[in-house]
Amino acid sequence: MKISIEYANDKDSQWLIKNDEHVDGKTIKKKISENEIIVVKEQNKNIGYLRFGFFWDEIPFMNMLTIEEEYRKQGIGKKLVQFWEKEMKKQNHNLVMTSTLSNEEAQHFYRKLGYSDAGSLLLPKEPLEILQIKKI
Question: Which DSSP category does 96 fall into?
Fold first, then answer.
């Protein structure tokens, strides 16, 4: 399988709006313009994305990583995270962050990629949110 990983552009916006139910279309378009969404494609078809922002306006923070179901468990998510980490390193960042709910399997995925638990957050009526960091 040949995949490509690149920053999202306007052509990706409708697919992202349809597939990212956590933020609205206006936010998606703003994040695209600020190069804060990276997409992964197979033969020009979007199959996943990584959306990020900055914790304390300073530390790159991965807000969302998703790969379409039929493409999971093939190393694509790992490649997408590694691409993002390299891009953040190019921008002179030496630390990246993410978080995952304590009842999600993603926490184990991030630990395999070198992320370590750095604290937690407990919001009302939500499972524990685990904050994870990685030096790059």
Answer: E
Tokens of 29: 């378009």
Q: For residue 19, what are the contacts with CB-CB under 8 A and spacing of at least 6? A: 46, 49, 66
E-strand spans in the chain? 3-7, 37-42, 45-55, 59-67, 95-101, 116-121, 129-135
Do the beta carbons of residue 116 and residue 132 sit within 8 Å? yes
Please, are residues 71 and 58 in contact by the beta-carbon 8 Å criterion? no
CA-to-CA separations, 126 to 38, 100, 101, 118, in angstroms, rounded: 28, 12, 8, 19
* Single-letter residue type at 85: E
Q: What is the pLDDT of residues 31-42, one digit of tens each?
A: 999 999 999 999
In this prediction the pTM is 0.94
Token look-up 């992320």 returns: 115
User: What is the architecture, at CATH level 2, of domain 3-135?
Assistant: 3-Layer(aba) Sandwich (3.40)
